[in-house]
Automatic annotation (TrEMBL):
<feature type="transmembrane region" description="Helical">
    <location>
        <begin position="378"/>
        <end position="403"/>
    </location>
</feature>
<dbReference type="Pfam" id="PF02687">
    <property type="entry name" value="FtsX"/>
</dbReference>
<feature type="transmembrane region" description="Helical">
    <location>
        <begin position="292"/>
        <end position="314"/>
    </location>
</feature>
<keyword id="KW-0472">Membrane</keyword>
<comment type="similarity">
    <text>Belongs to the ABC-4 integral membrane protein family.</text>
</comment>
<dbReference type="InterPro" id="IPR050250">
    <property type="entry name" value="Macrolide_Exporter_MacB"/>
</dbReference>
<dbReference type="InterPro" id="IPR003838">
    <property type="entry name" value="ABC3_permease_C"/>
</dbReference>
<feature type="transmembrane region" description="Helical">
    <location>
        <begin position="267"/>
        <end position="286"/>
    </location>
</feature>
<dbReference type="InterPro" id="IPR025857">
    <property type="entry name" value="MacB_PCD"/>
</dbReference>
<feature type="transmembrane region" description="Helical">
    <location>
        <begin position="26"/>
        <end position="47"/>
    </location>
</feature>
<feature type="domain" description="MacB-like periplasmic core">
    <location>
        <begin position="26"/>
        <end position="254"/>
    </location>
</feature>
<keyword id="KW-0812">Transmembrane</keyword>
<protein>
    <submittedName>
        <fullName>ABC transporter permease</fullName>
    </submittedName>
</protein>
<feature type="domain" description="ABC3 transporter permease C-terminal">
    <location>
        <begin position="294"/>
        <end position="408"/>
    </location>
</feature>
<feature type="transmembrane region" description="Helical">
    <location>
        <begin position="335"/>
        <end position="366"/>
    </location>
</feature>
<dbReference type="Pfam" id="PF12704">
    <property type="entry name" value="MacB_PCD"/>
</dbReference>
<dbReference type="GO" id="GO:0022857">
    <property type="term" value="F:transmembrane transporter activity"/>
</dbReference>
């Protein structure tokens, strides 16, 4: 064991000496490994950070949550022209399904509408994400409050002019003053602020709750009617835990087809989107990003491997005389083999460490500049270091074998 530790120390010394003696040659040789490791780990770190952000943004939603509307979250076999003819889901269908659906924990109704301006005194916030929803939304979405409350069933059904503000909207309108009970203007009418949400942070999926305002869905229905083509309606289902999702989807389809009077043989003119399917779609995209990153970075690693192999062959040639002397003094073939192999691994790992350091620096810069946390995790550091060691091992094996098989007499004579 002590022999191999000493061998490792000597190999590290030879590697450092190669760096000092041939700075430009070694730098160019390590450049490929550095760029390759940087590319791979940068992609992995970015994808991991993206995955972590998505998981955080969607953590409040149950993966079994179902969205019933006229659009599909993913690809569909139904032609686009036919999908464009699908009707919006109606409030009456929400009321009907709420009364007949079984194994349902919560069932809510939401309208997607355009952004609006909210005013308070001389302060105005433009392009606010208005979220008209039924009162069940708080239990479906898992909203958390800094102060105040969400509107109740009575306020929701009557379409009361009450409003719940996202954290950033509240701060922009009221600053440090108390917002609860104050009146703001929206749609040309006064709304009473009854709740302020906790700060959520930026979201990967458009506007976050911080820049949103929640109002009773029936207020918007009274304002625009039920057949406005510029609005998109959705019914949200939160099934009971442990329910068979296929049977539950079939029940939704059966009940809604019956309510709409669809005949046997006619296709569903609506889409039942399970949130888990949306997550699977995102996971698929992330996996494809990983694969593309590995392929692109693989070319850099290939070039880096050839660079390491080249510098090791040159190192063997330059130290032929020394190899002959070591062998004549009793050094075994495996000692010479490991000596050059360790040197190749050390050089490659050094290039990998430089690449990891570059990723870490860029991650720090981007985290400070953007509202997005880039994380270089321990797992990615280990992957980068291990990958660099493997590249060094593969690149150094042929030069090391060539060095170990040198005849001591010929090696001394050649080196003289």
């Amino acid at each position: 064991m002590l022999v191999y530790l000493r061998l490792l120390k000597e190999s590290f010394g030879f590697a450092m000496n190669a760096l000092r003696s041939n700075k430009l040659r070694t730098l160019l040789s390590l450049l490929g490994v550095t760029i390759g490791i940087f590319s791979i780990i940068a992609v992995l770190a970015a994808v991991d950070s993206l995955d972590r952000k998505i998981s955080k943004d969607l953590s409040s939603l149950d993966k079994n949550t179902i969205y019933l509307l006229k659009f599909s979250f993913g690809p569909s076999d139904i032609p686009q022209w036919k999908r464009e003819q699908f009707p919006n889901v109606k409030y009456t269908e929400y009321v009907y399904l709420k009364g007949v659906m079984t194994h349902t924990e919560q069932l809510g109704y939401q309208i997607f509408t355009r952004g609006e301006s909210i005013k308070y005194g001389s302060n105005t916030v433009s392009d606010v994400n208005i979220v008209p929803v039924s009162h069940e939304f708080i239990d479906i979405q898992g909203l958390e409050f800094e102060k105040g409350r969400f509107y109740n069933e009575s306020e929701a059904n009557s379409g009361s002019s009450v409003i719940v503000l996202g954290n950033e909207i509240a701060k922009s309108l009221f600053g440090d003053s108390e917002p609860i009970g104050k009146n703001v203007r929206l749609y040309g009418q006064r709304f009473t602020v009854i709740g302020i949400l906790k700060k959520q942070g930026s979201s990967m999926f458009g506007d976050s709750d911080d820049s949103s305002a929640f109002i009773p869905v029936n207020f918007v229905r009274q304002l625009y009617g039920d057949n406005n083509p510029n609005l998109t309606n959705v019914i949200i289902f939160k099934p009971e835990k442990g329910v068979d999702m296929e049977e539950y989807k079939s029940e939704i389809s059966q009940k809604l087809r019956s309510f709409r009077g669809l005949k046997a043989g006619e296709i569903d003119n609506f889409f039942i989107n399970v949130f888990a399917g949306f997550l699977d779609l995102i996971d698929g995209i992330i996996s494809q990003m990983n694969v593309v990153g590995w392929i692109i970075s693989g070319f850099s690693l290939l070039v880096g491997g050839f660079g390491i192999a080249n510098i090791m062959f040159v190192s063997v040639k330059e130290r032929t005389n020394l190899i002959g002397i070591q062998k004549s003094l009793g050094a075994k073939n495996r000692f010479i083999l490991f000596q050059f192999l360790f040197e190749a691994i050390i050089l490659s790992v050094l290039g990998g460490v430089i690449g990891l350091f570059m990723v870490w620096i860029i991650a720090l810069i981007l985290t400070n500049v953007l509202e997005f946390e880039f994380v270089l995790g321990l797992g990615n550091i280990l992957i980068g270091t291990g990958l660099a060691a493997v590249i060094g091992l593969i690149s150094g094996i042929l030069p090391a074998i060539a060095a170990s098989k040198l005849d001591p007499v010929e090696a001394i004579r050649t080196g003289m």
